[in-house]
Design brief:
The chain is an alpha+beta fold. Helices cover 32% and strands 24% of the residues. It has a six-stranded mixed beta sheet.
Length: 359
């Protein structure tokens, strides 16, 4: 990972006096190095600390390779991590948000790079963040190819940080998943989420912390653990599960359910001339969604366009592939169920019908 960077102070003073501690930055790099080195692949060349990450792409393996890229962050979920001074899971969220976008088109994630902006470098904090990123990369099967940590005194408070990441994946052109593969009669299979994932935290924090004034350290009976633990539940990483489905079934397309909820994210992958009809009665959202809705008096429409409501990924499959897909996901310990179907329609749209049981 390259050294800490910032613009130098004027003559007659020092970088440290301006708030940038280069020594702490170098200490942070050494502290995170063991975690970063665990998230590797055979194609990685060199190690942490160079100016560029190097990845030897074996072009002989592919006929017509297509590279896919994605950049994302984790939004205001970082505020929960900072409030609890627990930083070893937020990196898992970052990886999930990036690689689960890549896999929508069938791309295998190859590597990620991270960017961490901090008010003041605290080596142990940086190492914990990168540990989470490393753990996530290992779950996704991709390499952590380096990144950047930037100290911003005067712009960000000490203890404050934000993170983002960019990932690159690869897929054969002939195997690439595209909306034009979707047909009327196809079935939608939901892959369950692990909670809020990394979207809607501005609303969740406003309702639970500002309106309801619930303490992060307080035990919540519906959860079986504290509110803070629930809000820091890592985003589920579906990359390898989705790649297993593409290898073992005729899956048409995936939709990663992030900000905008089920309807808006599914619309992004539908071709013209079809509509998706979803049955709310096919699943019960986790208690955290009901808690937010009830404590904040948040209407269902607002909940459904803000949160994933318990569905983190949707697979679109031919009807005769559904049983096989459910078996694959069950074997991989991913909660999954039939969510709805694709119908012929004049306009590309998503309709949710019925009510959630016990919600």
């Amino acid at each position: 990972m390259p050294p800490i960077t910032a613009r130098p102070a004027g003559a007659g003073t020092s970088y440290a006096a301006a708030g940038v501690d280069i020594d702490a930055g170098e200490e942070a790099v050494e502290a995170l190095r063991p975690y970063a080195e665990k998230a590797s692949r055979p194609e990685v060349m060199g190690g942490i600390g160079g100016f560029a990450g190097l990845f030897a792409l074996k072009l002989g393996k592919y006929t017509e390779p297509v590279l896919a890229s994605s950049t994302d962050g984790v939004g205001t979920k970082v505020a929960i991590a900072q409030a609890l001074d627990k930083h070893d899971t937020i990196g898992l969220d970052l990886v999930a948000m990036v690689v689960d976008d890549l896999v929508v088109c069938g791309a295998e994630p190859l590597f990620m790079q991270d960017y961490i902006a901090v008010g003041k470098v605290v080596p142990a904090q940086i190492a914990a963040i990168v540990k989470g990123i490393s753990d996530g990369c290992q779950q996704a099967g991709c390499a952590l190819l380096g990144g950047e940590t930037a100290e911003h005194p005067g712009l960000m408070e000490a203890g404050s940080y934000d993170i983002s990441g960019t990932g690159v994946g690869i897929v054969e052109a002939a195997a690439m998943l595209r909306p034009d593969r979707i047909r009327p009669g196809d079935v939608l299979v939901a892959l369950g989420s692990s909670g809020l994932h990394s979207n809607g935290y501005s609303l969740a924090r406003h309702v639970l912390l500002d309106i309801a004034r619930m303490p992060l350290e307080g035990h919540v009976e519906e959860f079986g653990h504290t509110l803070g633990e629930e809000l820091l539940s890592p985003t589920r990483i579906y990359a390898r599960d989705c790649l297993a489905l593409t290898a073992e079934t005729g899956v048409r397309m995936f939709a990663h359910i992030t900000g905008g909820g089920l309807a808006r994210n599914l619309e992004r992958v539908l071709p013209d001339g079809v509509e998706a009809v979803l049955e709310r009665g096919s699943w019960t959202p986790a208690p955290v969604f009901k808690l937010i809705a009830s404590r904040g008096r948040v209407e269902r429409a607002e909940m459904e366009k803000t949160f994933n409501m318990g569905v983190g990924m949707v697979a679109v499959l031919p009807a005769d592939e559904v049983d096989r897909a459910l078996a694959v996901l069950t074997a991989r310990h991913v909660p999954a169920w039939v969510l709805g179907e694709i119908r012929r329609g004049k306009h590309r749209k998503v309709t949710l019908k019925g009510d959630h049981p016990r919600f």
